[in-house]
Amino acid sequence: MTVVLCVGHAVQDYVFRTPQLPQRAEKHRATGFFTQGGGPAATAAVTVARLGGEARLVTRVGADPVADVLQQELERYGVDCRYLRRFSGHGSSVSSVFIDDHGERLIVNHTDPQMPTDCAWLDETVSFDDVSAVLADTRWSAGAVWVLRSARERGLPAVLDADTPVTSSSGLLEAATHLAFSLPGLRDIDASATDRQSAGMALQRLAQRYQAWCCVTLGAEGVLIADGRSSPAKPVGVAGALQHVAACTVTAVDTLGAGDVWHGAFALALAEGLDEFAAVRAASATAALKVSRFGGRAAVPMRAERDQFMETR
Asked: Does the global pTM surpass 0.70?
C-alpha cells in the first residue's frame, strides 16, 4: 500500500445547515446538524485512506475529550495516528461551520494560541522508510518545513497545501517541491492575484522564483499550472507555459473540505507515480464528487467510484 505522510491541522467541526449564510446578529435556525473532524492535513489523510492509500498523520492536539473524538474518527477511516501528539494543558482546535443551500460555507475556528510549536520531537519519532510522498498544510509552519525538507532530501514529492495563511518568510515555499495554492493563499503572496488571468501571471512568477511546480485551484474554473523546475531542455529561471485543467461539472451541495480532499488525492497520485497533469485530473475528480453531495468526510469517494467517474469525463 502506498504511504503518504500528512502533517498539519486537525480540528473538530460543528456543522450547521442553513438556507443562507448568517448575515446579521440575530437568532438563526439550522435545518441540519452534524459533527465531524476537519482540518486540511487531517481531511487530506482521510482522503488518502478512502482512495486506498496508507495515510499517516502528524498533528498536535490537546489532552482533552475533543482529541479522543478526533482520533477515534480518524482511525475509523483508516488513518494511522501513530504521530498524533497530545499536549497537556492545551485545548484541541474546534470550528463552527455554516453551510447554505448552495453548498457555500462559513467557518469560525478557534485554535489554542499557546499550543507548542517546537518540532524537535519529529526528529526522534517520524520515519520516512516506506513513505512515497508527503503533504503539509500551513497551520504549523515549523513542523511542515521539517517534514517537507526531510522528504525533499530523500527525493520524495513534498506537497504544500498553500491555503491562507501563507507567508514568504516561513520557509514553506522553499521547502516544497510542489506548491498547490488556493486563490486566497496565492493572494497572500502576490496581492495582484484577484481572478483567473492575474492568478496565472502570479503563478508563473512564483514558479520562476522558487523553481518549483506550482498550481492554483479555482473551484469551478478548474486548475492553473506553471512548472518552474529546471531541466536540460528548460534552463533555470524559465517557467513552463501556463496550463489549464478544466473542472468536472457537478452541482455543488457541500464545499466544506473540498480543497483538503483535492490535496490528499493529488499527493496520493504523485506517490503512486502519476505525472502532475494526471494527478491534477485525479484530484479534481475526487473533489468534484465530494462537493456533489452532503455528508462531510463520508462524502469523499472511494477509489472505484472516483475512477468510474473519471471514465465518463
From this structure: yes
